[in-house]
Amino acid sequence: MRRLLPALAVLVALAGAGCKATSHTSVSPSLRPGRTVAVTMLDIDFDPASIQVSKGDVVRFQFTNRGNLVHEAFIGDAKAQTDHEKAMTSGHDHMTMGDTADQLTLAAGKTGQLSHLFDKAGTFYIGCHEVGHYTAGMRILVTVT
Ligand SMILES: [Cu+2]
Question: Could you check whether the bond before residue 44 is cis, i.e. omega within 30 degrees of 0?
Answer without folding.
Answer: yes
